[in-house]
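Problem 3 from the worked examples.
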Amino acid sequence: MYIDVILPLHLDSLFTYRVKSSADNNKSMPRIQRGMRVLVPFGTNKTYIAIVVNIHEKHNGRYAIKDIIEVLDEKPILTSQQFQLWQWISDYYISSLGDIYTAAVPSEIKTVEGHKRHLRRLAKQDNQENIFCKSETDDIHPLNKFQEKAYTEIKDSFDKHNVTLLHGVTSSGKTEIYIHLIKEELKKGKQVLYILPEIALTVQIMQRLQKVFGERLGIYHSKYSDSERTAVWYKQLSDQPYDIILGVRSSVFLPFSNLGLVIVDEEHETSFKQQDPAPRYHARSVAVVLADMYKAKTLLGTATPSMESYHNAISGKYGLVVLSHRHEDIQMPEIRVVDIKDLKHRKMMNGPFSPQLIESINKALAEEKQVILFQNRRGFAPTLICKECGWKPKCSGCDVPLTYHKKNATLACHYCGHTYKIPEICPECGSTKFIDKGFGTEKIEDYVIKLFPKAKVVRMDMDTTRTRSAYENIISDFSEGNTNLLIGTQMVSKGLDFDKVGVVGILNADAMLNYPDFRAYEYAFMMMCQVSGRAGRKGQRGEVILQTMSPDMPLITQVVNNDYDSYFKAMLAERKMFHYPPFTHLIYIFIKHKKEITADTAAIELSGRLKNIFGERMLGPDKPYISRTKNYYIRKIVLKLENTLSVSKIRKHLLSTQQELLTDSRYNSINIYCDVDPL
């Protein structure tokens, strides 16, 4: 008997192995099934845990077949729906099955050492069967008339559409609607997948869901240990799986037996897109496909829909439900625009703080309210500069300036993670005088402590939230009032629910707008609306101080008025004019090499071949905004493709063209990969 398997390697091929019968190897062997794991030899001296895909009795005889070493499972650890989903991801995102296996499965399941740890842990457990509580701590809040109307409209929409978009303003109570929908699915004996873009959000939502559903809820994300994620995986394969899974994008890979509803909360968030490494999938799209495989429904919820989702809704592909009233009819926050260009000219700014913002913060703190300050830059300052000649330290392996981190007295590259000592003298002019330019969250924190000495300050960015407990502690402390002034990057804009926030300060709106990307205005609008929505969620109306050097920009007016329709129409017209999504399907092709000349010539040759196939749909090659990272020079080719084109044919053309190029010995070590639907 022969089997075809997937290996956890960056390889697209399936590999064939022979399975000897029990008589041949003098020991009993479990009956092999699709989805089981087997230990196999690979190369000269390596072994891997592979997943069985096909079982057959013949092979083509073109090469010698190795025997498997061991069958590791008594029953499959992958379902047929998971295989189907992996294949769709491979086809659509032009990614190898090996990469998908590596990304989808916890290490304890896919590595030899991990498997041994799992067996040791099982051996220590009692042999008694675990009993999982199915009862519910039942704490469902009644819906108000606006939520009830939206809830009914969603159920009606599901009769006509597989996917429905819930466009609900911030603090309208979307989570309560989700809970009622989940309850309805559980009554039918169905499972629910609830995915969020950020681990930080799961802390608050988990507490709310546990009050209602108790131990029927399972949590799955990367800040949990590998053993915890492995335990969730196996529980989902058991006779008593979790009825509800709450997680981030990786939770779409879990096994389900009877999925009825998928909720994608904050569907607009870019965190749903996996960037590196492959597979570069978008969890929102994968969730829609996953639900369809189970004949389940998908609900996309947000206050600021993505262009693609809203276009799908208004064109009739998705259902659309609008919830335009905040919970308890609290008004949307008042957004006051402050022209910091004029204030800087009149020397009235205190660092990054306008007089208006300082006044509002002082007033809020005096009234025992809380404050959130949004600055989408971590570190102390974006760059360090020689005061005499203007020299800036750059990363040796990346084409980016180094960020100054004062607390650790280091310069750090936020692309490769490498850190450097602060130079004592300038290598260009020999000066010992350096100044820091710009404001990161760390420097904002210093200013806040000086300006508001009585404030209990906390900072939330990548530097302060490297562990699961760090997320939980920061959020719980702010929720409980142990801290009252939160400084953060885009993390603070992502759906967090705090009762006592009176003031939100957006310190520099222009930093989000001045970015060379066709989505820059979309991201800026979303982040400003979302972070503004953290103010005045309970009690009195909140206040937002929006600091900008471009107060007359139409986008600023749209944010102030919470005018999504005007923003959407303007953006849609622009996208249509320049053939961008949602009117086209984008694929970025990246070429990487350690030698710049090799990257250039390979990109030129590849673009020539692609031009013959795709014609004017192809643009480039060109240098991306960051053209070197981790000592690799990068070139980019862009494909703008009609939405009606066949995905399988596109994949076939791209892979064959790449293979043709890689047969040239000059390009043996070149790295070529595709990013489908890039963000």
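Problem 4, a separate protein:
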Amino acid sequence: MKHLLNLLAAVALLVWGTHLVRTGVLRVFGANLRRVLVHSMRNRFTAALSGIGVTALVQSSTATSLMTSSFVGQGLVTLPAALAVMRGADVGTALMSVLFSTDLSWLSPLFIFVGVVLFITRSSTAAGRVGRVLIGLGLMLLALQLVVEATGPLFSSPAMRAVLASISSDVLLEITIGAGLAILAYSSLAVVLLVAAMASSNVVPLDVALGLVLGANLGSGLLAVLTTAKSAVSVRQVTVGNLLFKLLGVAIAAPFVGLYLRTARPYVTDATQLVVLYHLAFNVIVSIGFIGLTSRVAKIVSQLLPVPPEPTATRRPQHLDPSALSTPSLAISNAAREALHQADVVETMLIGVLNVIRHNDVRLAAELRKLDDTVDELYSAIKYYMTKISREALGEEESRRWTDIISFTINMEQIGDIIERVIIDIEDKKIRPQRNFSEAGMNEIVELHQRLVANLRLSMSVFLNGNVRDAQKLLEEKARFRDLERAYANTHLGRLSDRTASSMATSSLHIDLISDLKRINSHICSIAYPILESAGALAPTRMRESRLSTLE
């Protein structure tokens, strides 16, 4: 029992080390990896090379698959180019397995020591995030040593050898077990390294080990399909196409396992090297042999999974892609784009309010109130999506962006609620009683409304670009709007003193309306505070003008 627990702990440590490397690299290079993938897809060969490089960094072809799928879902790349990236991603994983199979045990304590020092002393900096990657690499190397030490006593028992002997002649069972292990471990790389370590300890025969390796390759494709099962069809097309390539490759390679052993054994005596070189040879041959089929497979996948046409009236970008959650920097960008869509809906509501006031349009009022339900749904969807983003994989700047997005969506949701209440008041106090504002009062409302729409658009620019000057302008507009609201409230009281009939009939609505517009403006302008605070341009009670003058 003790030996089994030692093996399970070593496997868990291997998987955890792989996770630390993947999340650490994404935290350091996430946005850059995105750009590399997008810009390298001019042709299938450069796309495959980028897949090799990115996968070698993140230690996971599954992570690369999810990243690439997201780009297809957003319309940034074509399906054939994405499938070409995946051909390179599999080679990248195989190259890393060859590297880790060499005797790098002396690097394990060095990586862990240096990594821990960097992570503890500079956790919020780039050096600290590099330290996290080094810790993961050190743990992976340490885990491989522990696997070798634990497998010897465990698998020397007669019972375990009998179990292993039962699968030694069944290639399909070996492939199935290997695929299951890859799915459970969430990493084909970890499974290949584990199988190589077991083969070196004579725990499993070499032919069984190679069958498990084929299964691990198939399992990585299945894992990506399962991960994107609830994503849009365009996203799932990438993972299904990649799985088709893997199925075809495994089907072709399985009968030739014995031929590989007979050919390679005279030249490679080490069992570990035989396993990882087989993994590399399989992926290189499959990638080179199938890269010319990417367009054809893309057509087959498009026929198997056709993208359903959307009605023109409801067509809009869907940015909250679940498959992007494994790449936090990409998920943050998706959430920001969806937050801007939420702001677009709020802008539509805000612009429509003036038409309702001017023309007593009951039908438009009902449509605008329904839009508030859309705003609320978007807020809930964005909030839920953001809670699923791994905060530990976010850098300092991305963590601030995470907070900014949440704050922005909350403000938009509250603005939508205020607009809905304003519309209800207009229906109850103006449209049904058939009352009208005085000419002067209507001009005041139009002036405030125009400023409000302009401020909303400026706030969207501040949220998108984080420009400090624009944020300063937004706060200055807050002060101007407040002064204007006070002045218009006083002029309205003056009209009441003059006994203006229309002003007296709509007095309650007029005062409430300009007060609600001021509240909307406050929510809009609050978007500037995080930008100014992060720039160090906001004092406890006022903006530091001297500081702002030095910022661009």
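Solution to problem 4. The two ends are 65 Å apart (CA to CA). The CA atoms of residues 71 and 334 lie 11 Å apart.
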